[in-house]
UniProtKB/TrEMBL annotation:
Keywords: Aminotransferase, Pyridoxal phosphate, Transferase. The keyword Cell cycle does not apply. This is Adenosylmethionine-8-amino-7-oxononanoate aminotransferase. The keyword Cytoplasm does not apply. Pfam families: Aminotran_3. It comes from Nonomuraea jiangxiensis.
Length: 460
């Protein structure tokens, strides 16, 4: 190892505070350090290549190493590096807002920029509260979201998040957030207590739990329902047929805003620009971030239906909310260049065309005794691991710890596949490659997974 490499590794050990990371895991070993990327691959500090099976963190849609995005950033930084959107506009934010509005379904035409996804979620909740105050329904402030769903770390977004282990140490969080069942059809029997429901029946049942929660809380107190098109945490739960249509009906009936949290699902992850388009529903608000710039610069947004903006047109009314770096000119310029690539290379068409092959590659792993379920949509898939396929029995805490943390994550990485072994719900492996990936990358993902999962089973 060269001295500069040593210096970087030591600086990381001595000074970096990693996110959602047990630092104890790196007491005896170096922190994996990624230095560059190209297409669907990244390279570590020692020059070893990895297939980026997670697009960074569901982010790098157009792949790594795109010079034109770097150039768009440099050009904008030279022209106007910074100006805020506090009472002023700049051309790139205006153009990006217009372009996003053209892509959204329905009349979701009003774009409030943030710097990331959690802020977009936080913004959506605050907007819902203030909107209802302005239209004379001041008690409406509560939100409903789904079990195990992740919606971010600011205290409002964390309150909406449905993962108790991430919340407990920060309680008390923002009050008024209520959980309902998610759309994990694989575990529908346990969740609902009803045996053998079809996906449609389960979807109806799960959506109706939202109506029940609204009734229980009091419809005049509930402002919004937050749901991802495909729920990430827990391992890719697509909506059963009819689920979002029923949710839409319920939200309309009770005058509750439907917020589609598309921080992961927007920008082609499912083969459509926005997630609702894949499943044929129009929300009142979309929250998005990650793929908007493919990660070449940070940005997020809350995109609201024009009707929600109406009360803010009053003489002395404003949404008292903002972020210094929200809609940053460099990020906005990069987002526009990123959308150019989407159009020029027909990335949505590419994902839609290749989705069946990706599914087929992962479905082929179902013959392994440890693979309980394979589910997802577009380029966004989860593989649920089980101890017993026939009973769907999952691992106990000790096994899960030993398997996921102790073995799988590292073994997959050592084998050249960066992806995520996640135990926020039942243990799953999550896959979400760059949208430029294709048959060759799928084959590589399939063969690494087969080897490592076979070994994991042998170790159990
Ligand atoms: C659905 C969803 N919402 C919100 C967030 C939070 O986004 P960020 O990490 O950019 O704050 C995430 C992050 O993964 C997410 O997946």
């Amino acid at each position: 190892m060269t001295q500069p490499e040593n210096d970087v590794l030591k600086a990381a050990q001595d000074h970096l505070w990693l996110h959602f990371t047990r630092h104890s895991a790196y007491q005896q070993s170096e922190i994996p350090t990624i230095v560059r990327g190209e297409g669907s691959y990244v390279y570590d500090i020692h020059g070893k290549r990895y297939l980026d099976g997670l697009a960074g963190l569901f982010v790098v849609q157009v792949g790594h190493g795109r010079q034109e995005l770097a150039e768009a950033a440099a050009k904008q930084a030279q022209e106007l590096a910074f100006f805020p959107l506090w009472s002023y506009a700049h051309p790139k934010a205006a153009e990006l807002a217009q372009r996003l509005a053209a892509h959204t379904p329905g009349e979701l035409n009003r774009v409030f920029f943030t710097t990331g996804g959690g802020e977009a979620v936080e913004t959506a909740w605050k907007l819902a509260k203030q909107y209802y105050k302005l239209v004379g329904k001041p008690l409406k402030h509560k939100v409903i979201s789904r079990q195990i769903a992740y919606h971010g770390t600011p205290q409002g977004a964390l309150s909406i998040t449905g993962i108790p282990a991430f919340k407990q140490m920060f309680e008390p969080l923002v009050p008024g957030s209520v959980r309902v069942p998610n759309t994990n059809h694989y575990r529908a029997d346990e969740i609902s207590g009803v045996k053998g429901m079809t996906p449609e029946e389960y979807g109806r049942w799960a959506a109706d739990r939202v109506a029940r929660a609204i009734e229980m809380e009091g419809p005049d107190t509930v402002a919004a329902v937050f749901a991802e098109p495909v729920q990430n945490a827990g391992g890719c739960f697509p909506p059963p047929p009819g689920y979002f249509q029923r949710l839409r009906e319920i939200c309309d009936e009770y005058d509750v805003l439907l917020v589609s949290d598309e921080v992961i699902c927007a920008f082609g992850r499912l083969g459509t620009m926005f997630g609702g388009q894949k499943f044929d529903y129009v929300p009142d608000i979309i929250t998005c971030a990650k793929g908007m710039t493919s990660g070449y610069s940070p940005i997020g947004a809350m995109i609201a239906h024009e009707r929600l903006f109406e009360p803010f047109k009053g003489d002395d009314t404003m949404f008292a909310h903002g972020y210094t770096f929200g809609g940053h000119p460099v990020s906005a310029a990069v987002a526009l260049a990123n959308l150019d690539i989407f159009e020029r290379e027909d990335l949505l068409g590419h994902v839609t065309k290749n989705e069946p092959l990706f599914k087929q590659t992962l479905d082929a792993l179902r013959d392994l005794p440890i693979v309980g379920d394979v589910r997802g949509s577009g380029y966004f898939w989860g593989i649920e691991l089980v101890k017993d396929k026939s009973t769907k029995e999952t691992f106990n805490a000790e096994e899960s710890e030993r398997l996921l943390r102790g073995f799988l994550s590292k073994a997959l990485f050592d084998a050249g596949l960066y992806c995520r072994a996640d135990d926020r719900g039942d243990p799953v492996i999550q896959l979400s490659p760059p949208l430029v990936a294709g048959p060759e990358e799928f084959d590589e993902i399939g063969s690494i997974l087969r080897n490592v999962l076979t070994e994991a089973w042998a170790r159990l």
